[in-house]
Amino acid sequence: xxxxxxxxxxxxxxxxxxxxxxxxxxxxxxxxxxxxxxxxxxxxxxxxxxxxxxxxxxxxxxxxxxxxxxxxxxxxxxxxxxxxxxxxxxxxxxxxxxxxxxxxxxxxxxxxxxxxxxxxxxxxxxxxxxxxxxxxxxxxxxxxxxxxxxxxxxxxxxxxxxxxxxxxxxxxxxxxxxxxxxxxxxxxxxxxxxxxxxxxxxxxxxxxxxxxxxxxxxxxxxxxxxxxxxxxxxxxxxxxxxxxxxxxxxxxxxxxxxxxxxxxxxxxxxxxxxxxxxxxxxxxxxxxxxxxxxxxxxxxxxxxxxxxxxxxxxxxxxxxxxxxxxxxxxxxxxxxxxxxxxxxxxxxxxxxxxxxxxxxxxxxxxxxxxxxxxxxxxxxxxxxxxxxxxxxxxxxxxxxxxxxxxxxxxxxxxxxxxxxxxxxxxxxxxxxxxxxxxxxxxxxxxxxxxxxxxxxxxxxxxxxxxxxxxxxxxxxxxxxxxxxxxxxxxxxxxxxxxxxxxxxxxxxxxxxxxxxxxxxxxxxxxxxxxxxxxxxxxxxxxxxxxxxxxxxxxxxxxxxxxxxx
Length: 565
Prior knowledge:
Distance between the termini: 85 Å
Mean pLDDT: 75
Number of strands: 15
Largest sheet: 11 strands, mixed
Structural class: alpha/beta
Radius of gyration: 49 Å
Number of helices: 14
C-alpha cells in the first residue's frame, strides 16, 4: 500500500533524519579534530635519541598541536627498524647502515656521525694505509660502529683484530678499548697509536677527545686520517654518507684541523612508514623544526636535527635512502591547504549528497504517483459500487456495499488530510472595515491585522480579501483606503490643506517622511485637480451625479464642484 511508505515523508521523519545527519556530522567533526597519535620506535636506550624524542613529545603536547607522539623504547636500532618494518610503529629512529626498513622514508636527520681518527702528528698516521700494524684506541662504542670500521678497513685491504698479547700483523689493525678520560695517558704510554670515535664532529665529547690528543702532541699538532676517495667508498657502501669536517672546527692555535677533512660516517634518521599520510608527514616535519628551540632546552641533541640534503625533488624521491613526499612538501614550501587535502573527499560527499537527494525526490514522486493511482482506484470502485447498488436487491449486499463505501471514503479523507496544506483555523468575526451584509473571517490564532491608522484590515485569506482574486484585492484595497481616509480626517487637527472634490472631501493622509509634520504631501498637476463633467460618475465613490457633485466620504478621482452662480 502507498501508505506503508508515506511515513518517510512526514515532518517528524524528516526532522529525525535531519537530527541524525547533524549528529553524524558532529561526530565526524569531533573525530577529525582529535589529535593524531603516532607511535615512535626509539633506540638505542642509552643514546641521546630517547631524550630527544621525549622532548619533542612534550613540546607537541604543551603546544596543543594536532599531533601526539607515543614512545616505544628498544635496546638497539636494529630492533626499532624492525618495529617500523613490521608495522608496530608509525615512526622509528633508524641507522641505515645497520638495518634500512623496506617501508621507511626519511623525515629528518636527527644527527650525523663522522668517523674521526686522530693521532699526534709525530705518529705519521694521515691515511688509512698508514693504519696497518697500528693499535687504535676506541672508547664507548656500539656494535654498529664496529661494523662500519670493518667495512672501511676492508675497502683498503686491512683487517680488524681484537687486542692480544702479540703485536699486530702487517695488514692488521688492533682495536684497544680505552676509557674516554684515559686517552691522553694511553697515547703517552704508547699503548695506542691513534684514537678513533664515530661521533658528531661538533659534539662536546668529540671536542674533549681531540683536546686529549692535542695534549700529548708536539706543538699541539694533531693529524686526522682522511678518506680521499670518499665518492668511491659511498658507491661501494651506499648506506654510508660522506661527511666533511670543516677546518678550524676544534679551534686552538694552530687551528684544528688546518683544512677540511673528508671522511665517511653514518646518520641517525627519523623515518616514517611509506603509507603515512602526506599531510601528516608534512605537519610532523614542520613541528620538528618549529619546536627545535623548545626541545633544545631539554636536551642538546635537538641542535643537531637537520634536513636531509638533496638537489632536486626527483633526486630526493629516487635516492637510495629516499625522503618522504610529505617532508619534501615542507622543505619545498608546498604544503597542501584544506581544499587540497580534503578536496576529493568533499567532492565525493557532495556527489553522494546529490545522489541521496535525487533518490529522495524520486521516492517522493513515486509515492505521490501511487497515491494518485490509489485515488483513481477509489473513484473507479465508487462508480462500480454505484452501478452495483442500483442493481442490488439483497439487503446484505447493500450493507456490504455501504461498508465498502465507508472504507473508501475513509481512505479518501486520509489522503486529503495528508495533502492538505497547513493553515490556521479561522472563525467568522465582524470587522470594522467590512461593509454591511458581508462576513469577515479572522484567524483565531492571531489578532486581526491593523493598518497605520489603527483600523482592522482583512487578512490574506479573508473572504473577498487579498487572496480572493483580482476584484477581491481591489475591494480590500478600497476598504483599507477608506479606513485610512476616515482615520486621517478624524486625527487631523488645526488648519489643513485639502484637495478639491466632493462635499465629504477628506484630508490626504501624510506619508512617512513626506513633507512637513501636520501637512500632507501634494503632488502638483495631479489629475484630481481637474473638474469632472456634469453627468459623469465619480471614480472615487462610483456614484453618478447629474450636477457633477458626489455624495459620501470617498474622495472623487478628478472632479471639482460646480461654481456658484
